[in-house]
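# nightly structure sweep
# worker-07 picked up a monomer target from the shared queue
# config: single-sequence mode, recycle default, output format = structure tokens
# input follows
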Amino acid sequence: DEPAEITAGWAKTTAILDAMRADAQAHGAQLVVVAIPTREQVHDRYWNEMKQQFGLTDAQLVRDLPEQHLAAWSARTGAPLIDLLPGFRAADPNTQLYYFRTDRHWNAAGHALAATLITEGMTRLGLFK
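# output follows
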């Protein structure tokens, strides 16, 4: 079960996305949301470290829950969503690290993969030719 403060946070987040979408439309643009996965979602090593650090089990967590929330919002509003998580996982994340070890940002390989996935997503949406 999701804690009330997390549910409230998602309500606030989707309200902000709704406002951004409306603002884009008012200016003749289309909002495209890109879901950026955390290193814990991509790399098993970091996932297991996080669970151990906070004393959690797989039964207490849903590894792609943020993407589920964004997908539900996208389906409700019709706003395009490019979810990078499947692409990062499919690119063999346990042999190629896409995040720096010292912080949670992408390294060069992560940026390159994200650029490819976003380009593919924009093309699939018909926004790139």
